[in-house]
């Protein structure tokens, strides 16, 4: 066992000389074996060992006795000890989290605090290969995404240093034998036998069968974990190419925006990886609520012919498709409808900050999409600037009859989210003169009298 762990530590560069190692110790066989093993390295590598233990207050006096037991062991082995008691029940009530999650959160908060207090380089945990196999089997059961089945990392950044698991190369039986050989007396947590918790149920009912089929399951699963992680790191590095084609966030809100056409030019594997990198970016971390079903619905949305569509993801994240453009955002804009009177010589400001000015003009020619000129004798003043209404129609120049404003939006591929706030100009009789920036009415320029009305639109982004 010693040789296996030493080789594992060297392979992953888990512990170096002259480091401060904080070890989490519950008093059970796994963590006690870890503390004992670290003691063997203490002189060889000139390590400072700090044992830490947490009483979760869930088993009354028994859990407090376990804390005192670890403190006594640390004293006998001439090690520093820092322990604490936490109120899991109160935290559960306050936050609504489950017992196991609440205990974990409070436990790791304490561990981070200790690492900072002692200047820890390494935080060591006693998880072994059977724990790893349990974790990965549970992950396989819950998810179809390969990147979700990575198990526990051998090491990762933590507080002032890194978190390590030097026993992932060993089985539970290896550790029990180590305790026996070294005459280590440990405590057993009776709650580990309760199958109310999912992990305990897997440990009691699933793992014995799998270990019977393959006694080296723990080794195979650890190697699989390492290879999956290496593969995923490579895929993520390649998926950065996808993210480089996207627009991501501004100072006002978090969002990701991309072209469907460009996105679909990448291989499907990179598309999937990029999608989960986007989720990590927006949520801050990967959340379990986003399942493969959400992923499949999203990819269907990208490939279907609907020009406008929306998808709701967990925790308020929305996916909005507008023709070729897709936006993922937590922002939920309420459409602002408006109606404003516009008199000649005045300028009105619209809700988005843009402006429309009306003035008399000596000439009848307009200049581009954002100017509109009409014969004043064919309109009834004052003008009205408003958002669209059901049934709005406009008479276009050279066209018999009128066309629905809705159809113009579709022809011009205006995103559905923008249509409700798009400004149009009518006269007092309701005649639609101008769908700003899109189409101009032609009926009010027939039989011109020479008295012209000029409108000018200025976007709030114009300089």
TrEMBL record:
Keyword hit for Chloroplast: no
Keywords assigned by UniProt, alphabetized: ATP-binding, Cytoplasm, Ligase, Nucleotide-binding, tRNA processing
SMART domains (UniProt xref): TilS_C (SM00977)
Annotated positions binding ATP: 26-31
Enzyme Commission identifier(s): 6.3.4.19
Compartment(s) where it occurs, according to its Swiss-Prot or TrEMBL record: Cytoplasm
Stored NCBIfam families: lysidine_TilS_C, lysidine_TilS_N
Domain statement: The N-terminal region contains the highly conserved SGGXDS motif, predicted to be a P-loop motif involved in ATP binding.
Family: Belongs to the tRNA(Ile)-lysidine synthase family.
Functional summary from the UniProt entry: Ligates lysine onto the cytidine present at position 34 of the AUA codon-specific tRNA(Ile) that contains the anticodon CAU, in an ATP-dependent manner. Cytidine is converted to lysidine, thus changing the amino acid specificity of the tRNA from methionine to isoleucine.
Protein name: tRNA(Ile)-lysidine synthase
Taxon lineage: Bacteria, Bacillati, Bacillota, Bacilli, Bacillales
């Amino acid at each position: 066992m010693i040789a296996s762990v030493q080789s594992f530590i060297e392979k992953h560069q888990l512990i170096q000389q002259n480091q401060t190692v904080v070890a989490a110790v519950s008093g059970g066989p796994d963590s006690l074996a870890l503390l004992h093993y670290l003691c063997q390295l203490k002189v060889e590598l000139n390590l400072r060992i700090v044992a830490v233990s947490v009483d979760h207050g869930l088993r009354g006096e028994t859990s407090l006795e376990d804390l005192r037991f670890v403190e006594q062991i640390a004293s006998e082995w001439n090690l520093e000890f820092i322990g604490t008691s936490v109120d899991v029940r109160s935290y559960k009530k306050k936050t609504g989290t489950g017992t196991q999650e609440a205990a974990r959160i409070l436990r790791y908060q304490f561990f981070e605090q200790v690492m900072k207090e002692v200047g820890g380089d390494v935080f060591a945990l006693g998880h072994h290969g059977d724990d790893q196999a349990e974790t990965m089997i549970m992950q396989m059961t819950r998810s179809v995404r390969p990147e979700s089945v990575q198990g526990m990392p051998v090491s990762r950044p933590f507080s002032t240093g890194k978190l390590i698991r030097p026993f992932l190369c060993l089985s539970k039986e290896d550790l029990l034998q180590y305790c026996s050989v070294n005459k280590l007396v440990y405590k057993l947590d009776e709650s580990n036998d309760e199958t109310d918790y999912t992990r305990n149920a897997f440990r009691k009912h699933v793992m014995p069968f799998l270990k019977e089929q393959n006694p080296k399951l723990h080794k195979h699963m650890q190697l699989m974990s390492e290879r999956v992680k290496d593969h995923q790191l490579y895929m993520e590095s390649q998926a950065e190419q996808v993210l480089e084609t996207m627009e991501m966030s501004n100072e006002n809100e978090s969002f990701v925006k991309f072209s469907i056409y460009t996105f679909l030019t990448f291989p499907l594997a990179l598309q999937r990886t990029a999608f989960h990198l986007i989720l990590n970016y927006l949520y801050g971390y990967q959340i379990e609520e986003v399942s493969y079903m959400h992923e499949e619905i999203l990819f269907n949305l990208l490939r279907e012919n609907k020009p406008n569509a929306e998808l709701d993801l967990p925790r308020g994240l929305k996916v909005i498709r507008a023709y070729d453009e897709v936006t993922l955002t937590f922002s939920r804009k309420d459409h602002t409808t408006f109606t404003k009177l516009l008199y000649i010589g005045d300028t009105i400001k619209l809700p988005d900050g843009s402006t429309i000015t009306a003035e008399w003009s000596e000439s009848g020619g307009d200049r581009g999409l954002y100017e509109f000129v009409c014969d004043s004798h064919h309109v009834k003043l004052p003008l009205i600037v408003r958002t669209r209404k059901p049934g709005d129609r406009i008479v276009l120049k050279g066209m018999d009859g009128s066309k629905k404003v809705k159809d113009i939006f579709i022809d011009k591929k205006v995103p559905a989210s923008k249509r409700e706030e798009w400004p149009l100009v009518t006269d007092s009789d309701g005649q639609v003169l101008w769908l700003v920036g899109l189409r101009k009415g032609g009926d009010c320029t027939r039989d011109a009298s020479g008295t012209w009305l000029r409108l000018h639109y200025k976007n709030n982004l114009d300089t």
